[in-house]
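Sample intake sheet
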Amino acid sequence: MSTPLIRKRCHRYNLPGHSHFLTFSCFRRLPLLGRDRTRNWLASAIEAARESHDFAVLAWVFMPEHAHLLIAPQRREYDISAILKSIKQPVTQRAVHYLRAHAPTFLVQLEDRQPNGDLSYRFWQRGGGYDRNIVGATEYAEKIGYIHRNPVKRGLVSKAEEWEWSSAGDFMKMSAGPIRVDTVLTWSLTW
């Protein structure tokens, strides 16, 4: 007798005025964001999703096997699941297309056999990732600090602003990363 598959359910709360601290991980925790190519795909997908879903980007970081994003939807009604899909799906499509053309032997590492037997390819871990609603200034500051400290904690750089794939340089007014940060909104929310 087989045990039924139990999937964790991620509850999302689309509440006006709330921001969202999002974390999504690469399939099997592979370092799929370890190359500039894939990080640029993710940055482009975030910018395209920002245009279609109207959200502000408050802070972000791309690590080799996961990403953190702090966003503030600007519409009264929004769907955080649709926003995540708009960010994640194009990256998966580009990765699969690229691997088919340039590294078909690596593509097998992205194979995911579905419970019904169908085969799909995944860039991202199954499920929606982590989503936490953020409302208070203290919590904003804590999440922004957490995001920016991630590469330092992992030993990728000695100072947060040295990590090119993060909004830390924007905050320190040292450099602008590939994703435009809505710093006016961020500073008014956090300080």
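Comment: The mean pLDDT is 88. Strands lie at 19-25, 55-62, 66-73, 111-113, 119-121, 130-134.
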